[in-house]
Fold this sequence. Notes:
The complex is a heterodimer of chains A (113) and B (117). Chain A has 113 residues and is mainly beta. Chain A contains no helices and 11 strands. In chain A, strands 2, 4, 5, 9, 10 and 11 form a 6-stranded mixed beta sheet that branches. A 5-stranded antiparallel beta sheet of chain A has the order 1-3-8-7-6, with no helix packed on it. The radius of gyration of chain A is 13 Å and the shape is globular. Chain B has 117 residues and is an all-beta fold. Chain B has no helices and 11 strands. Chain B has strands spanning 5-7, 10-13, 19-24, 31-37, 43-50, 53-57, 65-68, 75-79, 88-95, 107-108, 112-116. In chain B, strands 2, 4, 5, 6, 9, 10 and 11 form a 7-stranded mixed beta sheet that branches. In chain B, strands 1-3-8-7 form a 4-stranded antiparallel beta sheet, with no helix packed on it. In chain B, β5 (43-50) and β6 (53-57) form a beta hairpin. The interface between A and B is medium-sized, with 25 and 26 residues.
Amino acid sequence: GENVEQHPSTLSVQEGDSAVIKCTYSDSASNYFPWYKQELGKRPQLIIDIRSNVGEKKDQRIAVTLNKTAKHFSLHITETQPEDSAVYFCAASIPGGSYIPTFGRGTSLIVHP
Amino acid sequence: EPEVTQTPSHQVTQMGQEVILRCVPISNHLYFYWYRQILGQKVEFLVSFYNNEISEKSEIFDDQFSVERPDGSNFTLKIRSTKLEDSAMYFCASSEVGRGLWDTEAFFGQGTRLTVV
């Protein structure tokens, strides 16, 4: 099955700095890579996703890049704000009739004001 | 905006007792999932359900677990005889049918925190 590794486990930045979270996946058949943000005590919520036919996707301050050859993808957050503080999970999904993302272990992002 | 809802938000149960966690998926979704998240750890897939049967399940989903869609709106997870290590946040999720080669987003409920004492 798919295995997703995520680094770092914790990331501490100053407000205004950029944050980068990296993930690798094992199954080259994976073609959908969502990123979820989970605030303390709340549900995981999709913040951005990328499919394997593109290499980069951007939405305001967040962007995701995908390198299919190397089987890794990254989340980039620019101009971080304290409200960006949360746990971020990457995931990879193999195509098929059902959608079953395999999650990384999560990165706890702390943005200091 | 439609949401996946779960009840209860917190359940405390004694070891060995049965618990049923309830979920109401988004109404036009056809795939349903249960995930669990042990405190401080990653979100782990338990089971997916489609067309009134289990589509896939992980090694975590052993004979102690079962799922059911008792009516047109609810989706339940039953743990027959709870163990201390079942303590976790349990998330229900639902998604539309995957379109062609591209999979679709899963929407998560707010979770049920299960504490086994």
